[in-house]
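Board notes (copied after class):
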Amino acid sequence: MRWLKTIFYLFVPLTMVIGVSYLLQEVKNNDAVRTDPGYKQAKWPALPAAVTPGKPTGIGIDTNQNIVVFHRAGKEWPLLGSIPKDIIKDNTILIIHNKTGELLSSWGSGIFIMPHGLATDNKNNIWVTDIGLHQVFKFTHDGQLLLKLGEAGIPGKDSLHFNKPTDIAIANDGSFFVSDGYGNSRIMKFSPEGKFLFEWGSKGMQQGAFDIPHGLCILNNQLYVADRENARIQVFDLNGKFIRELSSVSDADICALTADTLKNKLYTVDDLNFMKLKHRGSDIIVSDTIGIALNRFGRSNGTQDQPCWFHDIAIDKEQNIFVGDILKNQILKFERITKP
């Protein structure tokens, strides 16, 4: 996808015209996604009719192995123009039972403008980012605010501000990383108490630079960064030192990734699109820690006629996969049916 950057800047006016017809195409919900023989798509979740996970941008697993979803309640981020500043009135955090798909609890109304990333920690806290507020939040599992970073509605690039932060990753010692993000193309590290420690990165294609660092995870005390527009994963130690680049996982935009710490594997979702106007589908890729794909399914198995956009991914201890599809406003579960 890196070679598309040049084309993008040359042909933006043309694509804005022809893209209108693409945007008018209907996307149907509940189309089954083809999987490899090792997985099957579950009939899940079983949410109340009044609850629709509109634009589920963030997804995680809590300490009880239940699913935590951060969604926009259907609010759109315009392709052109600024993010609408109205506060979302619906509950934006959903806690869903892993097995039954039942809604266990929900909260988060009247707080957020444009939800984005979500992470959970080993104390069952829930961390989220809001790209409209330019803030990072830490909550208890039931929604009590523990920490808030950034100035509401004010973007910036110093140690006290973010510019559309995308994701969070929490280390074992409680320190945490923020990918910042759409506006700043940097990674920031904070102490467990939220004190800024250091940062690295700028916009670019070289090692240690990013073009929208979009997702984070930690595996073996190394930070994996989904460098979305550069179609690669970059790996750093927890002090920000570059270790390696994984550029063979996908040729499409790398949207998000999560770690299987028991099996030492990465689970990644991508997005194949035409200049962000036409989304051709997503793959779920299971790889080793040096980027060799061990399993791949989704778009590559023939989902071009069933477009989707998997924005985030989580796995449970049984290696079942959960993804948030922001094109069809749905959460999907792929059950593992063969031994890993």
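Comment from the instructor: The first strand starts at residue 39 and ends at 41. The domain at 4-336 is CATH 2.120.10.30 (Neuraminidase).
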